[in-house]
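Minutes, project check-in

Agenda point 3 was the complex the collaborators sent over. CS summarized: two entities, 797 residues total, and the question is how they sit relative to each other. Sequences were read into the notes so everyone works from the same version.
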Amino acid sequence: MSNVDLARIQFAMTSIYHFIFVPITIGLAFLTAILQTVWHRTGRDEYLRLTKFFGTLLVINVVVGVVTGLVQEFQFGMDWSAYSRMVGDVFGAPLAMEGLAAFFLESTFLGLWIFGWGKLPRRIHLTSIWLVALGAAGSAAFILAANSWMQHPVGYEINATTGRPQLNNIWAVMTNPVFLWGYAHVLLAALVTGCVVMLAVSAWHLRRRSEAPVFARSAKLALVLLAPAMIFQMFIGSELGVVEGKYQPMKIAAAEAQWETCQPCSFSIFQIGGGKQDQTPTKIIEVPHLLSLLATNHWNGQVIGLNELNAQYQQQYGPGDYVPNVFIQYWAMRVMAYLALVIVLLGFWGLWVMHRKRLETAHRFLWLAVWAPVLVVLMNTAGWLLTESGRQPWIVQGLMLTKNGVSPSVSATTVAISLTVFFLLYAALTLVWLVLMLRYARKAPPPTVPAADDVTTPEPTFAR
Amino acid sequence: MTLPDIWFIAIAVLWTGFFILEGFDFGVGMLHGVVGRDDAGRQMAVGSIGPLWDGNEVWLVVAAAAMFAAFPGWYATMFSALYLALVLALVALIVRGMAFEYRNKDAHPRWRRTWSTLMTVGSVVAPFVLGVGLGDLLHGLPIGADQEYAGTFADLLPPYSLFVGLTFVLLCALHGATFLALKTTADVRERATRLTRRVAPFTALAVLIYITWSHVLSGKGFFPNVIEIAAVLAVLAAAWLVKEGKEGWAFTATTFAMATSVLVIFTNLYPRVMVSTLGEANDLTLANTASGSYALTVMTWVLVVLLPVVLLYQGWTYHVFRRRITAADLGDE
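CS then shared the predicted structure for the full assembly.
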């Protein structure tokens, strides 16, 4: 395997892994903040217990997200030095802003929140968890702005002497339509993920009738948010598809394995073949007009096929193959969309049993809810595969090819060594994380101590 | 002062902030097994940095991101050149970060022992490798005219850089020891005090050699300047100050020594950012690696507005957790 392949595998592996924890963190941070707010307002014991319970799960997740995030940041320079050299002027700015504006906020206030029980005034302690959530969501904003620039570069000019893009309009970068829609998409994904995790943990306890009155509350909070968030998410996602279709038509055409231009276009629910080798698939089920609608927002919209796009690109950028991996695109799109439907159905099912006041006894629902986090992780991963693999062969759409972005001084052997190291390390981390998550998710929420604020008299440190 | 100058200073400050803050939690990570003879003692040591280490580590993230944004050429060459070293540093940082959060999540002795070992090793390896990396910037690496690294892994390890790595490990150990003396109680505090006094002479010697060596390397004479001499004396003063029970001042002294030691690299580098051993013409400089003025202007505004805010709330965190940790503060989750 070439160093390009290995560097791509490493980036994909570490990014997918990192993004297991990111949406759980953002989602759970907001939900924990809501729980604590309810406790703050009502003073009801069970909300305090739930806050501490889900706060512990949040912390177990955050740490993995934080440490794997370091790898993400270092990797651009390590594996993709030609890319970094080329685009740092534009791409680096949002990354630096992320650290200053958001990551500091999240990390500092997380420490304050975890260790601030009984030390901080209640209102300030509550503000801390909201700042953690805000910081986490803010981090995602800057990272998404950077990523969106790779999908649809804006706000730059090419420097005549160096031939490199230079930032000339930060506002354009931060209002990139791909970013605005993509960010809404990621935030909602995080909320859905958080809800599903909270629902799953609550469902596990409800099935065992442990602390049922407490966990019924968290299950309800998750359910009230889940179905609306997921439906809203599907609208945002479909709009993002239209926006990306405008700037990256290849990505959308490949997601439908649409080799020839069509108008109106039907959507294939399922098909066999149609990938790289055979361009004539055996379509099993088709929905007329649906693809036109999804890709263009018009009943009779035209979708330009991969072959025609490829010919256009060859004329524009020179000879080469500009078609992304069609199999990945086609199935990533479907795995994402179908799992989204499953989650919507799960959400409505939950609302229905909740409405009939049978949440605690709806065993089949609770069983499915316990396993739902697996579905959500797969859904999130498929979404990223769709958008990142769909950008190929470009590392920055229209500006730089992925194969030209790799570090020229780093050999394939070196990348292979680090790939192996990170694979083994991440496998071990997963094991530890899973053990701890499962153990702490299965514990009873901590009993509340009578509200005696710390009465120890600590010794001042900077004295004498 | 030009925009690249401002950003060179900003990056030097960010690295300095990183080593001052993460420096003591590196030290605590290294020493927690020594100052804490039993599990309660170890918990106390680790508890002293519990709320702080995560925020400290962000300084590294921001330092690296600032290099990426302000000097893409520097970031690209340095990170690809140091590839395997950085893999090692990342593994160390990951492992110790996990250890801080996960060690107390299970009471089984083997679980705690394992995380303690990983915490210790990670906390030694990370500052060592990062120190070697900073040393490499000044010592020089084989960098070609295309700004690409042209060496092997072994070229990353000249004696000077290894010595810088060692110096930073010692500095972190000392800095962690004064922090522990300041923040803990009872026998942990006593052992931290004793450790400070034992480590300080070696650290002072290492810092002196490191500073002199750096001067010679960059052709700036032999003798340390006043501030650098003060840094060496500060290390020795720390030993005396902890004995006198003035741990706050001892910690201030090691902070000063740490800051000066990091800045030695940057002041000797300027206006270069990475020296090439293949001829001066190949040196990476502020001029040939910096981003355009628009990007630097935007980021300067962001820095000027946000860094004071960050300092304010991070400083406030330290204020909130200013008390010493006592046995009463400990307990399993």
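Noted in discussion: Chain B touches chain A through 79 residues (CB under 8 Å).
Follow-up: revisit at the next meeting once the mutant set is ready.
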